[in-house]
Amino acid sequence: LIAIVGMLTGVGLIEVLSASSVSSGLDNSGNFLYDAGMQTGGALIGIVLGLMVSRFNINVWHNWRNRFVIIGVVLQFLVLFTPLGVEYGGNRNWLNIGFTTIQPSEFLKLAIIVWFASWFHDNEHMADWPLSKWGEPGIWVGIPIVMVVGGQDLGTTIILGLIVLGMMAFAGVPSRTLWGIAALVSMAAFVFISFSTSRRERFVSW
User: What's the whole-model pTM score?
Assistant: First the structure.
């Protein structure tokens, strides 16, 4: 896992350097490494925080899982329904906190992972349950995803969906159930693209 994360981070930083070097130089007095350097600094901070967090006892995640989701939902609510929300490129997905903007949906990704992993830990045999008994994750995982959809951020919504399906797969949920959910989500995404002008234009251009 560490090797995979390290590889993806390294390749990502190289791609940032490749994609941003020219514009970075033009915008920062010839410093072509500025944007890539900022990303590298962020990655290093993330590594340090990751090492610290890895030392937490599992009970921390169990006790805080609901609070993490609530915090993320509250922040996403501020994005959608208050003047603090910032829209860019058709997505209303940023929160203006004065000196910078943050993206609560990124926090929700982590909150959903923590919540779902902890719930799977507490419900070892849920793979044999019918979907009708999945009410609790439907609320704690479904509501955050719906709120991200409300900001019209299709990319983040797809990532959240893949995270949920991936965790269900590793937890042992039958493949027929996963394929059924994936088919329904794909149809919903198609409808969303059809009714969203900016998404439709992006898809057609691609």
Answer: 0.77
